[in-house]
Design brief:
The structure is a single chain. By secondary structure, the protein is of the alpha+beta class. It has one domain (about 5-265): Double-stranded beta-helix (4-Layer Sandwich), CATH 3.60.130. The protein has five helices and 16 strands. Strands 1, 2, 3, 4, 5, 6, 14 and 16 form an eight-stranded mixed β-sheet that branches. A hairpin with a 6-residue loop joins β10 (about 180) and β11 (about 190). The two termini are about 25 Å apart. Bound molecules: succinic acid (SIN). Succinic acid (SIN) binds near residues 128 and 248.
């Protein structure tokens, strides 16, 4: 695709692109947003550097993608549940997103997009890795694609003990979703099970479900599906949860990595 208003530099052949020539605090005109949206659908996760957004501008950027999603349990900034805190430091006993997952896939209508904006990053480490779930699906053989296409899986969240004193906004969600979903905007098929939330494939014995899920969780780790982003202060990432998974690497303890995430509501997967 040719872009007129933004520069798009792919990070790998499979997934990810760095966008430049845009000030997200100011340049949200219709033609620019149309190209950002197109680049996001084409590359699945897009990155911007040296952005200086207020909390209101971060929220406004999220609203360009749709209605905002509220995380079931994570703490938030300034009494605004749409501004999820992503923070790890020397007192943390866990890191947000340290297993492969698609954000809150245990919701009946899981988020379609997430926008993470980090203001504090460690000198080294703290990268995030994303995996392309179209590619993961397309790399499977025909008979396995056919089998998976007939199956659904149960996704469950259990945030107990995750967020210290912070009281959850709502109960731990759970939902049943197709193992292979069709992206509502591109029409492409994507693998939709993840290690963070998917507990059981329905209609199979416990052993069959466990063996198949283990195989799929391993399959997602193939580096040919991946890109890895090195954060800097004031970098921002927008990813599509309908066709990607990600993993936040916690290799910087006891240093601090901190920012906010605005998340956008999705549809029921089909
Ligand atoms: C998340 O899962 O939203 C966290 C990603 C990250 O911190 O890189």
């Amino acid at each position: 695709m040719q872009y007129q208003y933004i520069n798009v530099e792919p990070l790998t052949a499979s997934i990810g692109a760095v966008i430049s020539g845009v000030n997200l605090g100011e340049d949200l005109s219709e033609p620019v947003m149309t190209e950002i949206h197109a680049a996001w659908l084409e590359h699945l996760v897009i990155f911007f550097r040296e952005q200086h957004l207020s909390e209101q501008q971060h929220i406004a950027l999220g609203q360009e993608f749709g209605e905002l999603h509220i995380h079931p349990a994570a703490p938030y900034r300034h009494e605004n549940p749409a501004l999820m805190v992503v923070h790890t430091d020397a007192d943390s006993h866990r890191n947000n997103g340290e297993v492969w997952h698609s954000d809150v896939s245990a919701d009946e209508k899981p988020p379609k997009a997430s926008i993470l904006y980090l203001q504090t990053v460690p000198e080294t480490g703290g990268d995030t890795i994303w995996a392309n779930m179209y590619a993961a699906y397309e790399a499977l053989s025909g008979p396995i694609q056919e089998l998976l296409g007939s199956l659904s899986a149960r996704h469950e969240a259990d945030y107990s003990g995750f967020y210290g004193e912070h009281k959850p906004q709502r109960k731990n969600p759970h939902a049943e979703h197709p193992v292979i979903r069709t992206h509502p905007e591109t029409g492409r098929k994507a693998l939709f099970v993840n290690q963070g939330f998917t507990k059981r494939i329905l209609g199979l014995s416990r052993d069959e479900s466990s063996a198949l899920l283990q195989f799929l969780f391993q399959h997602v780790k193939d580096p040919t599906f991946h890109c890895r982003f090195r954060w800097q202060e004031d970098s921002l990432a927008i990813w599509d949860n309908r066709c990607t998974q990600h993993l936040a690497v916690w290799d910087y303890f006891p240093n601090t990595r901190s920012g906010t995430r605005v998340t956008i509501q999705g549809d029921r997967p089909f």
